[in-house]
């Protein structure tokens, strides 16, 4: 199992994670469905997690993996509160289109 | 080595499918597969504890939450709001600019040594638990407080208010 990873340079991990992160950014920009936008945010969080783990293994320091653990706890809390807010918005506006929520627009 | 590139290709493919599929339910299912490939990445890096936690938290808890909300909102393809083509093209171009900027800045880095698992014990529960409960005890307790706050907030937001203001 360890031999399988030995010849992958760290640069390829960085490039792969930035590609996934950019896919998340594109998802936030091109979709109007709030739930799909939250999924894109999850995608971005996961790409950063993977990069943290890769660096932690590269340097032989376990603090990075503990940090990923905290990021996962934060993501769980964020999704719970976010989806509750989406339910609230849907109950009031009967839609999950974010372009309706423009009351605070300047 | 080839395992990494194959799994990375699968992750990219399913991540793209997540953001372009019209049906939100299909999006959630593609996202589940994406998270599964991330778990495989963690196993390849010998981060076994995080692989299991990723499996349970993301593919279990968060995906059930997404699917449950989709079910409660009764969404399907017809209710999907669409952005104009212009905004979509501009969004994709902006994302590609981000990719190009990042990739160009990484070119100035030295080509790093191949990733080796220096210490195979590092991602195991024994080692991580020791670090978590010695060096990171206060953040660990604070994260429990955060989860409690999130739970109370979610219940409070989701409750139907009897009297409208």
* Element string of chain B (H = helix, E = strand): HHHHHH
Helicity of chain A, as a percent range: over 70%
- Helix/strand-derived category of chain B reads mainly alpha
C-alpha geometry of chain B: globular
What separation lies between the terminal Cα atoms of chain B?
Answer: 61 Å
In short:
Chain A has 106 residues and is mainly alpha-helical. Chain A has helices spanning 10-30, 34-59, 63-93.
Characterization of this structure:
The complex is a heterodimer of chains A (106) and B (165). Chain A is an all-alpha fold. Chain A has a single domain, classed as Orthogonal Bundle (Helix Hairpins). Chain A has helices spanning 10-30, 34-59, 63-93. Chain A is elongated. The mean pLDDT of chain A is 86. Chain B is mainly α and 165 residues long. Chain B folds into two domains: 1-76, Four Helix Bundle (Hemerythrin (Met), subunit A); 120-160. Helix content of chain B is 73%, strand content 0%. Chain B is built from six helices and no strands. Chain B has helices at 2-20, 24-44, 48-73, 85-107, 125-134, 137-158. In chain B, helix 1 packs antiparallel against helix 2 (24-44). The longest helix of chain B has 26 residues, at 48-73. Chain B is globular and about 60 Å long.
Keywords:
heterodimer, A: 106 residues, mainly alpha, Helix Hairpins, 3 helices, 0% strand, B: 165 residues, Four Helix Bundle (Hemerythrin (Met), subunit A), 2 domains, 73% helix
In terms of topology, how is this protein built?
The complex is a heterodimer of chains A (106) and B (165).
Chain A: H1 10-30, H2 34-59, H3 63-93
Helix pairs in contact in A: 1-2, 2-3
Chain B: H1 2-20, H2 24-44, H3 48-73, H4 85-107, H5 125-134, H6 137-158
Helix pairs in contact in B: 1-2, 2-3
């Amino acid at each position: 199992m360890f031999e399988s990873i030995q010849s992958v340079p760290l640069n390829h991990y960085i490039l792969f994670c930035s590609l996934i992160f950019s896919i998340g950014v594109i998802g936030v920009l091109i979709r109007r469905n709030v739930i799909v936008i939250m999924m894109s945010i999850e995608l971005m969080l996961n790409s950063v997690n993977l990069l943290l783990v890769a660096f932690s293994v590269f340097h032989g320091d376990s603090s990075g993996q503990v940090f990923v653990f905290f990021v996962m706890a934060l993501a769980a809390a964020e999704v719970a509160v976010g989806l509750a807010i989406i339910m609230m918005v849907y109950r009031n506006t009967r839609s999950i289109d974010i372009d309706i929520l423009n009351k605070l627009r300047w | 080595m080839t395992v990494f590139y194959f799994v990375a290709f699968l992750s990219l493919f399913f991540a793209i499918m997540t953001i372009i599929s019209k049906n939100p339910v299909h999006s959630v299912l593609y996202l589940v597969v994406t998270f599964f490939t991330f778990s495989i990445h963690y196993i390849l890096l010998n981060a076994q504890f995080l692989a299991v936690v990723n499996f349970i938290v993301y593919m279990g808890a968060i995906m059930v939450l997404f699917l449950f909300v989709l079910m409660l909102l009764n969404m399907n393809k017809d209710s999907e709001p669409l952005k104009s083509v212009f905004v979509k093209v501009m969004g994709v171009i902006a994302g590609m600019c981000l990719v190009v900027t990042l990739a160009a800045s990484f070119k100035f880095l030295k080509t790093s040594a191949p990733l080796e698992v220096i210490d195979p014990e590092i991602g195991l529960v024994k080692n991580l638990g020791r670090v978590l409960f010695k060096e990171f005890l206060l953040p660990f307790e604070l994260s429990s407080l955060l989860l409690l706050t999130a739970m109370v907030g979610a219940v409070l937001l989701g409750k139907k208010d009897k009297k409208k203001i």
